[in-house]
Amino acid sequence: MGLMQREKLRIHIFLSILSFLLFFVSSVVAEGYFADIDISVDTSGFVTISGTTNHQDILVESTESYISKNQGFWLLNITKNEVFSEYIYTITFPKGTSINYIKSSGTFRIGGNEEHLIVDGFGENSNLSVTVQYQIDKKHDESMLNTLNVNFGLISLISILIFLFILVYFKYPDENKSPDRYDDDMLKGLNQRQKDIMNILINNNVPLTQSEIQKEIGIPKASVSRNIQRLELKGLIEKEQTGMSNLIRLKEK
After folding, report:
1. Which tens digit of pLDDT belongs to each residue from 54-109?
2. What is the residue-wise DSSP string for 96-165?
3. Is the separation of the CB atoms in 61 and 41 below 8 Å?
4. Residue 131 sits in the same domain as residue 145
5. Domain that holds residue 52
6. Is residue 9 part of a domain?
7. pLDDT one-digit tens code per residue, 213-250
């Protein structure tokens, strides 16, 4: 093999290797990043991006970094300068949104339903960039504000009613107590006739004579007198001499 032939062979091998490297590099570059993401925009200018991507700086939850506002106009700007082999996005705007202009590095389509305005977009072998200027209908904002005001008013009214109930209940505890509560506390350890006498005094809430107690309870006078004495010894009632009669009342603690 002559010198010229060997030189041609070297050049051919070099060009083959160079072609392979260029093909490999172009394949890697073409692969690039990919993204299949959902972009949700709320009425306060917060953005949440979720989905699948190998880009480290796209997915985010509830951020204001992609949106700015000038008077009544909002501007959404999501731009990633790296090359994406493929990207797909869906932007969901709140109810009452209208778009003034939209610019995207790929193809996009505007749609939606009764609740949201939706923009779908996709692109290949380019950077990911989408800019949308939009505004939200003031009537929709006012409707939401009115709903919030109504809910706040109802919550305030319920809170006031609860406060008044607690105030009345604790201000007049004796009027709200039931005989069952006395059964648990004051009437513990008493026989049935003594409990009956105590309940009569509790329910009437005024001093009574022994005769009045006897008429209500319907037992002999001696039995009433005996049980009144035992209740007096237990410190639950007290007597007050009034003329020829004794007034029986609950003893204050």
Report:
1. 998 999 999 999 999 998 899 999 999 999 999 999 999 998 899 999 999 999 99
2. TEEEEEEEESSEEEEEE-SS-EEEEEEESSEEEEEEEEEEE-HHHHHHHHHHHHHHHHHHHHHHHHHHHH
3. no
4. no
5. 31-136
6. no
7. 988 888 888 888 889 998 988 889 998 887 777 899 89
